[in-house]
Input
Amino acid sequence: MDYALIIEGANEVFTGGAPIEVADPVIAVEDGKIAYVGARAHLNQDKVSDNTERFSALGQLITPGLVDPHTHVVFSGDRSGEYAMRSAGKGYLEIAKAGGGIAATMRATRQASVDELVTTALPRLDRLLANGVTTAEVKSGYGLSFESEIRILEAIKALNARHPIDLVATFLGAHTVPPEYKERRSEYVREVTERMIPEVSRRGLAEFCDVFVEESAFSLEEAELVFRVGLEHGLRPKVHADQLSAGGGSELAARLGAVSADHLEHISDAGIAAMAESDTVAVLLPGAALFLNQQENPPARKLLDAGVRVALATDCNPGTCMSESLLLMLTLGMSRFGMSPSEVLDAVTAQAAKAIGREDRAGQISVGRPADLAIFDVPTHQHLPYHFGVPHTTAVFKGGQKVYGA
Ligand code: NIG
Ligand code: FE
Output
């Protein structure tokens, strides 16, 4: 069979982990999959015919379709006022205690139908796509009741069917204790473990189970219980860990074999050591620290030097990071975390894919994988974080089909 598509003329192809060092690189696509990547000289010319579509990426950078491994894009309501309050000096927890925060989004989200949740999330996915994203994780967690959490997961399923981005669903019923359970939190944990998780699992609505481990949310003991029940129901753990204080969430993640531990602004040395011993990916969220004007950075260098896999994500959510700009996270990964250009690119491709259990499918350009590709109008991967805050994406291919760009 002939190649369906060849993409040629690129100045650099970053295959995942590193750029390939060949002159005149070409990518050939067949059956939606990468059939060849390398120098034009070794392309099988017999498979190039009049039926082969040619796409010019002249002088540009080609990367694997980017992977955003941590988002909360399904929600209703508007918290722009909270951002204004924060810039005027109010604290995140202070606003949450006064009825804002996660509970404010929860009230709006509980009112929304599945269709409404889909309609409000679609443009957010479009903006992720415009950043070159072809695979993203999406969490529930703004419903905090059986019915509403299920509606969010149904919306994620519907969005996955409608939108070119591949979505991976995570159940985050344990995001915070909803106000009506404040005085009887163990009952809410029971609601999560005895009703929500079994239903989510029975209906195959999520792959992962997440808990916000934090003084203001759930204790280590509560989290462990939720994760154990999740594991019994086939949901692998992901953990919101050590974001606002060192709570031992990263140690718990490593001990339970979680697929990722996320945030980690306050991870302890013991947490780093535990992560280094495990296969758990550290997902760092520099947009949240920026938006909250947190001075503490997660110790990205220490994590990398200890051998921990590091991914970057948007954390796109209405409270702590209202942004779909994964490209901005590359710049923040360098400026705030001291990561190198290839480390930040690796962090939104191969490592991000590993953080959501998609290492066999996403985050790399190699023969046999789906042809998920992003093309940026910059000459090399080093320029992508360097030239920041402006759109660079010229085209995005998903399974060999152009889903973004002219
Ligand atoms: O990932 N950390 C916990 N949850 C979200 C934000 C919650 C909110 O304020 O809506 C986060 O940062
Ligand atoms: Fe988050």
